[in-house]
Design brief:
single chain, alpha/beta, Alpha/beta knot, 2 domains, 9 helices, 6 strands
Length: 222
């Protein structure tokens, strides 16, 4: 039997989604981007994992790449507030080289966030090409290998005795400034393509419709 197309699947599931939810999804998709993404290396504290996802959803970042070769990435539902449902998580069980290679093959510039290297700030980081912001563990930050593989570095200016912000705070601060700059630019094409929007719409439909797989199976077996 010929597999149903994306358009056919959307046509079957759409009547089961309220107009309000459809309008909200369309509005959110119009503000989503893959121009900026996150690469999280071995984040193990549930609060930080969840807060990072929540910030990504709030700022319109669709993709998060997670390296969990040693530490399982386990967001807390209480902090997450359902944000992970709407995001695309890419999980890597091998090593940082695999994650970085995948991102570079997709056209991303790898930006290591670290207070230990001279580099750009959220105000000066170039945004003309897609960027992947790499964040490290809560205690040690990024691994030496991750920093070695990076194309450039980003530091949040600090004015106190403390060396750095908590990782979830750093994610929010950096995304806030970079997303504002990206959206204000007339030279950056940061929106999702129509095809990407349709693919995500189908994914989201399936997440909010109970037994969507069974419904599709019945409808397309007729």
């Amino acid at each position: 039997m010929t597999q149903p197309s994306r358009e056919q699947r959307l046509e079957v599931l759409a009547p089961l989604v309220t107009d309000h939810k459809k309008e909200l999804m369309t509005q959110v998709l119009s503000q989503r981007t893959r121009h900026i993404t996150l690469l999280l290396e071995e984040i193990f504290q549930p609060h930080n994992a969840s807060a990072a996802l929540r910030s990504c959803d709030c700022f319109g970042i669709q993709d998060i790449h997670v390296l969990e070769a040693r530490n399982r990435y386990s967001p807390s539902k209480e902090v997450d507030m359902g944000s992970s449902k709407w995001l695309t998580l890419h999980r890597y069980k091998t090593d940082i080289d695999d994650a970085v290679s995948t991102l570079k093959n997709r056209g991303y510039t790898i930006v290591a966030t670290t207070p230990h290297a001279d580099g750009f700030t959220p105000e000066t980081l170039p945004l003309d090409k897609p960027i992947a912001l790499a964040f490290g563990t809560e205690l040690a930050g990024l691994s030496d290998r991750a920093i070695e593989l990076a194309d450039s570095y980003l530091t949040i200016p600090m004015y106190g005795f403390t060396e750095s912000f908590n990782i979830s705070v750093s994610v929010a601060i950096i995304l806030n400034r970079l997303v504002e700059r990206m959206r204000a630019s007339n030279e950056i094409e940061w929106h999702l393509s129509d095809e990407e929007k349709q693919n995500l719409t189908l994914e989201w439909y399936k997440k909010i419709i109970k037994r969507s797989d069974q419904i599709e199976k019945v409808m397309f077996s007729r």
